[in-house]
Each structure stands twice: as structure tokens, then as C-alpha cells.
Fold this protein.
Amino acid sequence: MTSINQNEWVALCGVEDVPVLGSRVVQRQKGHPVAVFRNTENKVFALLDKCPHKGGPLSQGIVFGEKVACPLHNWNIELVSGCAVAPDEGCSQKFAVQIEDGQIYLNRAELTTLAVEA
């Protein structure tokens, strides 16, 4: 992998700093925070920390496989796409993630872009 361009990517933390089957919350200057998740396969995902159903904090949900269960009403949200599993509908904004040398990077432009509020 080529070196991460520091103008395009923001260093967040080490992969090991995100608990397995858990998350870490990234505050933004504007808009809802971002939840960064890690599953048992050490795959890392980032979604807007807001369930598409009632706005519950996805960072407080239970991670299983490549999904997270919203803590409010148990909707299952796919971590890859941010979309609810059928029959539920709606999506939470997803954020690009890069991993280099065990460090997690998020896309700077995406972090500064406000998500559309429902």
C-alpha cells in the first residue's frame, strides 16, 4: 500500500485502540459524530453515529459479524454499507477507512461534510 496522504486522510488511532466487537466515537466540528467499529476479524468500519430509524447511537450497539444492532430498537445495520437489514429500511452515512501500519485513517473531506439530517 502506498503512504497515506496526510492532506486527504486523518489519523484516528491504532486498530488495537478500538475494542473487538466494539466502537470508538469520533467527534466532528459540525454534525453528528462518527462511530468506528471493529469486528472479530479486525475489519474496521465507520458510520455516522446515528441509526436511520430513530437516531439511536450506533456506537452503543452490539457488533456481530459485519453488522451492528442499534441499542434503541435492535435494528441491524450493515457496517459495510450503513444500510438497515430488510425488512427495515434506511441508511446511515458510511465513511471511507484506510489502515496502514496498524493505524486507522478516515477521509478528511468526508469528516468535514455534513450528513443530510432526516
Observations:
- Residues 39 and 96 are 16 Å apart (CA to CA).
- The radius of gyration is 14 Å.
